[in-house]
Amino acid sequence: MVEDNPGDIRLVREALGECGMNHRLEVVIDGVKALEYLRLEKSSLNGSLPDLILLDLNLPKKDGREVLMEIKQDADLRCIPVIIFSSSEAKEDILSSYNHHANCYVCKPLDLDAFIGVVELIIRFWIDTIKLPKKVAP
Q1: What is the DSSP string of 1-64?
Q2: How far apart are CA 83 and CA 3, in angstroms?
Q3: Which of 46-50, 65-69, 118-122, 125-129 has the lowest mean pLDDT?
Q4: Which end is more exposed in the chain, N or C (fewer Cβ atoms within 10 Å of the end residue's Cβ)?
Q5: Residue 135 binned pLDDT confidence (cut-offs 50, 70, 90)
């Protein structure tokens, strides 16, 4: 998860716990750290790339739009599904995200229960339902 809002991070962790999912959640708080983390995992002998990336658009240092573009331009990272998880409902953000190969775009609900429900749906679909490529760093 690439997110700088502590409240949203806490809610995602809570949602994972509430639906009984034991998936490991790694959190980085800005775009620069996100790319550093992915590149470190990619180059590490024991590194394991994430199965899924929840990416906020409005991040410090390097915004989510730039992070998305860099992920999708990297042959070793582009197969990781990137879910844009943003409070922005702007048509240009949604279009730009899909044009830069986001796998889906989800607007963060304002209601607490709806927020937790959306996170559960994301995880159940992207982790438990569909088949993802198992990408281990070379």
Answers
A1: -B---HHHHHHHHHHHHHTT-------BSSHHHHHHHHHHHHH-TT-B--S-EEE-SS-SSS-H
A2: 12
A3: 46-50
A4: C
A5: low
In whole angstroms, what is the distance from residue 135 CA to residue 102 CA? Answer: 18
Instruction: Mark 78-89 as b/e (b = at least 16 C-beta within 10 Å).
Output: eebbbbbbbebe
**pLDDT band for position 93 (cuts 50, 70, 90):** very high
Contact 135, 49 (CB under 8 A): yes
CA-to-CA distance for 46 and 138, rounded, in angstroms? 9
Distances 42 to 12, 63, 69, 94 between C-alpha atoms, Å: 25, 21, 17, 28
Q: What angle do CA 88, 122, 34 make, to 5 degrees?
A: 65
